[in-house]
Design goal:
With 141 residues, the protein is an alpha+beta fold. It is 38% helix and 22% strand. It has helices spanning 24-31, 41-56, 78-83, 85-101, 134-139; strands spanning 60-65, 68-75, 106-112, 117-122, 127-128, 132-133.
């Protein structure tokens, strides 16, 4: 599995300006051509399963907007985020990898509900943003 390490979590009342850096492997998926003979069915099935699970969960949302697909993980606060870092990083890496292979413009978001902040990764760029307010996301998707 492709992993993304999540670093730069919130500290006290001050938000850390570090960003989450994607693993080198995610960038390699973006940069490598997918072999024509490679069976994309498994990538589509894996991605569909992730989306279906998300749609059934209370802490996840999947939406299509402006020719892009958005996978949004809702976490109550940064303490809970710290306890779920590996799971969220794995989910982000898998979603982005499958989206890249299938050539689907996608973004993955982590929302800290209590703090009203969000961090996102544009899967095609393989880069995480810094933390910013939910209001900024509403105004500048």
């Amino acid at each position: 599995m492709v992993g993304i390490s999540l670093v730069g979590m919130l500290s006290g009342c001050t938000y850390n300006t570090n960003t989450i850096q994607p693993d080198k492997v995610v960038k390699e998926v973006k940069n490598n051509e997918v072999n024509q003979s490679e069976d994309k069915t498994s990538f589509k099935m894996a991605r569909d399963n992730m989306i279906n699970s998300c749609n059934k969960a209370y802490d996840c949302q999947f939406i299509k907007k402006d020719d892009s697909e958005h996978f949004i993980v809702l976490v109550e606060n940064h303490q809970l985020m710290n306890s779920k870092t590996d799971k969220i990083a794995s989910k982000a890496a898998d979603f982005c990898k499958n989206s890249l292979v299938l050539n689907i413009p996608s973004q993955f978001y982590v929302v800290l509900v209590d703090e009203r902040v969000v961090q996102k990764v544009d899967c095609s760029a393989s880069e995480w943003s810094g933390w910013y307010s939910i209001d900024e996301l509403k105004n500048n998707p």
